[in-house]
Q: What sequence folds into this?
DNA sequence: GCCTAGGTCCCGTGT
DNA sequence: ACACGGGGCCTAGGC
């Protein structure tokens, strides 16, 4: 595609026969095109689990990376799918068109059989654009590293992504009074999971260093009901928003962010 | 659709102008049809996070339930999306076609602008089929309820989905020696999260009852490395497979299962 | 409305 | 290869 409006290996067919659909599919799969098929079908999946979906009209996407998804008329998520790197097999039998998508590791397969195709489309989209997402938890950590004072005056970085037994500590620092501070970051509101995660880190560091350790949960806000557990476990909460972090990143010279805040 | 091969409000257009695309879209959105659009576009999202995706050729699905997804040529997951119940706004400006999808709670919006449409399709799929999935964790719980002995001789049900402070206990029972048993089920291999989840329940029940409580993790297998934590926390592992559970369900009269094992 | 937990989660990253 | 944690996770079920 992308040839000034001129069709380049772009196929669009209304009500193709199963025979035609079969040959179009074989061709598109070989060329690793982006295939869109609407049709009346039945779906069976077996692998990590098993499923069956009776006859109905759906839209199927097959991408050049070997992923497939079956979309019903409602619902954000596909009803059946396979992640990239599947092997596809197409054949006709008993007046039906079969599409099979097989995967190893885990070993599983998805089989669709069609009795009617509503439309068939295939093309090779040209898409080399960069995708940027703001602000991830990782970027919040970067902001905190660049300016720990956004969390608390006098806070200083000692280390980040420090490995202790239960996992990785987002931010490991020292406060104005010289006490160790462990910070657990959450991009959105923090719940019990985050609190317990922080507690594990605090316990682990206490065990290793023997020193007094502060555990600080930094997030836009606490989920209601989490406050109790936090206090009970002797931990602290500090409000930290993605927006604030974005400002820090912008100020400290990271471009790209600027257009989005 | 579904009228013996006859087109009923089914539209398929190759290279529609932006003007035509706009009017087709307005119509389809009003009728809550399933829309498939391929075109060259730029995408901006803002809400729980923010993102920008430069120009490129993609496939967009808009469903009658108000969900939208933008698919790049690779990757199982859409690069941008909105879940069901969005409000859509379509307009043309500066030689571009804009599609906006807005959501409240959380407040967020996705905006696509196109400079070229490769194809446009809309139809109203007829799909009333039942979807059945085997074997879910819930079904494994049902099997364990019907025959607790599959986990351990003498085990008896006391309650299930019992609410304690941290959450819901899958299976709450009593062993041959009269001790309380808390079972955490996993349909696939269990890792640290499952162990910690179980530990929370055990602690909570211990606190409430003051009795000796056994914590049992039931899953097809443990992830390597999880064994240590399990032992450390004084918990037990029992192998339980979906297959075994399916057999119990089949024996105890649940149909449908039979075709999938 | 919030919270909790499951999912054929997917996916990136590290060991 | 496998384990671990994040995700704009989405979705279902309880309260």
A:
């Amino acid at each position: 595609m992308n040839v000034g409006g001129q069709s380049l290996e772009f196929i669009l067919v209304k009500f193709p026969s199963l025979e035609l659909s079969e040959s179009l599919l074989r061709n598109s799969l070989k060329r690793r095109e982006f295939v869109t098929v609407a049709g009346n079908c039945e779906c069976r999946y077996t692998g990590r689990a098993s499923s069956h979906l009776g006859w109905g009209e759906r839209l199927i996407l097959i991408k050049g990376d070997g992923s497939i998804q079956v979309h019903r008329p409602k619902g954000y998520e596909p009803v059946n799918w396979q992640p990239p790197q599947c092997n596809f097999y197409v054949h006709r039998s008993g007046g039906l068109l079969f599409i099979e998508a097989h995967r190893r590791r885990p070993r599983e397969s998805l089989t669709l059989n069609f009795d009617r195709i509503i439309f068939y489309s295939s093309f090779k989209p040209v898409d080399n654009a960069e995708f940027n997402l703001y602000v991830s938890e990782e970027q919040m950590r970067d902001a905190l590293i660049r300016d720990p004072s956004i969390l608390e005056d006098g806070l200083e970085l000692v280390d980040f992504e420090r490995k202790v037994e239960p996992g990785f500590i987002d931010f490991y620092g020292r406060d104005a009074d010289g006490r160790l501070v462990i910070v657990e970051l959450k991009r959105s509101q923090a719940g019990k999971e985050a609190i317990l995660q922080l507690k594990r880190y605090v316990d682990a560091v206490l065990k290793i260093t023997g020193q007094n350790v502060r555990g600080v949960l930094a997030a836009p806000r606490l989920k209601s009901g989490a406050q109790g557990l936090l206090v009970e476990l002797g931990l602290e909460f500090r409000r930290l928003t993605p927006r604030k972090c974005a400002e820090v990143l912008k100020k400290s010279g990271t471009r790209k962010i600027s257009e989005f805040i």
